[in-house]
Every structure is written in C-alpha cells, then in structure tokens.
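Exercise 7. Given the encoded structure of a 226-residue chain, write a plausible sequence.
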C-alpha cells in the first residue's frame, strides 16, 4: 500500500502578491500611429514629386542643339543644327528653336560637339561671309543656278543674261559677271525660284541689284577646291 504525502500547510501570513494586469495596447497604438505618420509623409513626398514632374514637363521649351560635330570656323548648315526640348533652367541660355534661320550661315567660334546645346557665345560675330561687303538679294529662277547645291560660303559668278530680244553674245565674248559669295539661300517657292543673298565687292552692289530687278542674273558656282 502506497503512502500518501502529507500536505504542506500554506503560511498563514503569506499572500500571493497581486500582479498588475497589463496589456500591449499602448505599444500597439504607438506603432500604429508611427505607421500612419510614415504613410502620410510618403504620400506628401509622392505628391510633391508628381507636381514637380508635371511642372517640369509643362515648362519644357524647344531650343537649338548640335546635330553633329562642327569644327571652329565652319559655316553652320541645316544639317549641323537640330531642335531639342529641355526643361527651362535659368542657368542655361541655349538659342531658341525660332532662331534657326538666323543661325544658319554663321561661323562657329569654337568646336561644337554632337548633342550639345547651341549657345550664342559659340558663334562668331557676324556671318564671316562678306560682313565688310555689300549684300544683295537675288531671286534666281529655276534653271538659273545649280539646283540644290548652293550653300553659304560658296563663291559664285553672278552672270548677266541677255534681255528679251537681245542677240546672244558671240562664243568668244565672255558675258559680264560679278564675283560674289553666297551668304544664305532660301527654300524654293512653288515655282522653284530661290532668293540667294550675295556678298559682293564695294560698288558692285547697285549694279547687281539693278540686274537682279530685271531678272537678268544667273549664278555659276565656282569649284569648292579653290
């Protein structure tokens, strides 16, 4: 027969201390507010970033850029210049796209690199093409100049053509001509005519202008290897 263990009496004066009942609610509440505050901050940052992106996109402007490498002293042509869109920046002063017609025919003061923005400071003062000479605008009809091959800087002879009813000059008689340099060439109009701005020596301007007014000018381009 098994012996039962005697029960140990509990001390009379001993009471189990009452432990305070605690919950994790304050900690959870503190963490919840931290998460909410973080979400609010992220939302504000995203909203500001979106507003900045929209504002930047709306303030983009069209400017001139360099389409290919151009050495210093070279005359700018249409294939050297392109149009790019950039964000407005007070630190940048590129030439606006609307200035492209005025830029063509000017000479570069420094080497230009493809992809760079075109600045006014990179262009030499004046065109470099007869800036100290008289300039005359000559409307040249189709067939009275080499088609599509004239470019700023080309040297040409402005040849006087016979008036209507005049006899053709003899084969051994050279027609009258004026040496000139092409400053710029317009796009052809509906009839194929172009306006060529020519730089000519002093005192030749009035004579060339009078012949051009009568439509009696044909252009002969001289070899570019000269």
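Solution.
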């Amino acid at each position: 027969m098994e012996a039962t263990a005697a029960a140990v009496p509990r001390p009379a004066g001993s009471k189990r201390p009452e432990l305070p009942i605690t919950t994790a609610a304050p900690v959870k509440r503190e963490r919840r507010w931290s998460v909410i505050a973080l979400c609010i901050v992220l939302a504000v940052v995203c909203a500001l970033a979106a507003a900045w992106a929209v504002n930047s996109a709306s303030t983009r402007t069209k400017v001139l850029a360099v389409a290919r490498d151009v050495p210093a002293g070279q005359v700018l042509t249409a294939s050297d210049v392109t149009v790019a869109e950039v964000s407005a920046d007070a630190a940048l002063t590129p030439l606006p796209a609307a200035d492209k017609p005025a830029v063509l025919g000017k000479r570069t003061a420094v080497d230009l690199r493809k992809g760079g923005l075109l600045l006014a400071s990179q262009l030499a003062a004046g065109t470099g093409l007869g800036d100290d000479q008289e300039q005359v605008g000559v409307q040249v009809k189709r067939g009275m100049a080499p088609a599509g091959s004239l470019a700023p800087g080309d040297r040409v002879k402005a040849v006087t053509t016979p008036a209507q009813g005049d006899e053709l000059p003899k084969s051994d008689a050279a027609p009258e001509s004026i040496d000139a340099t092409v400053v710029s060439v317009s796009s052809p109009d509906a009839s194929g005519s172009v306006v060529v701005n020519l730089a000519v020596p002093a005192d030749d301007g009035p004579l060339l202008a009078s012949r051009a007014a009568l439509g009696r000018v044909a252009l002969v381009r001289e070899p570019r290897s000269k």
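Remark. The chain has a mean pLDDT of 78. Students should compare their own answers with the one above.
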